[in-house]
Fold this sequence. Notes:
The structure holds two protein chains of two kinds.
Chain A: H1 2-22, H2 26-46, H3 50-74, H4 78-81, H5 91-110, H6 127-137, H7 140-161
Helix pairs in contact in A: 1-2, 2-3
Chain B: H1 4-24, H2 28-52, H3 57-87
Helix pairs in contact in B: 1-2, 2-3
Amino acid sequence: MDQGFFLLFATVSVITALTVVLARNPVHSALALMACFLQISAIFVLLEAPLLAVIQIFVYVGAIMVLFLFVIMMIDMREAVLQRFLPGGNLPALALLALLGVEMLVLVLGSDRFSVAEPVAMRGGDDVRQLSTTLFADYLLPFEVASVILLAALVGAIVLARKEWE
Amino acid sequence: MVPLSWFILLGVVLFVIGAAGVLLRRNILVVLMSLELLLNSVNINFIAFGRYYADFRGQIFAIFVIAITAAEVAVALGILVALVRNKSTLKVDDVTMMKG
């Protein structure tokens, strides 16, 4: 049952990821990426991380992809649409990618560390509560640093995208 | 129950696809989207390992990755808008002003 759902979500996410890379029109890429993020959040649900699944949908699908679509709307895409995807155009990059993929596959399939079939039993009780206790107690400093980074990014984005005052 | 290696393999496949997008596409927007795909495949790994070894730190790191990604996308799209306003190009190869 779980395996069937996993295969379904994994297949759709891989297909949509390929669409992101291969589509000629960036709008199609953005919509395919949205679908891919939805599949990945379903995979998070399979991994019993519902909080992460909801964050994934809110942040990625709700915020980041809407930002992408807004920018695509602002920019004149007609010239970009004409660019084709040339698979054979960059042979060193292709060779590097093939090497990387084969290396990771060999490592994953060759190591017995990844062949865990059954997860360690989770501690009982409220998962989200334990997660947030860990986040706000042990990881308080990184949390605050992340919030400062978000503030800096907010200010930076406004300053960068603003029109120059004459 | 799904074995751990399946999730890792899904992460590998998505990572390679995203890397292909970053390296082979010339459109800046698609490169940025492929970057999102890369970060997401890493998140799958984090959460899968956290689940299978019963450790919350995987999820916590995934939350941090998502927060930093949001910041990165905001700044990158701001730079992109400024770039298009000044040079009106979307090709990676045309943006070589810093090359000297």
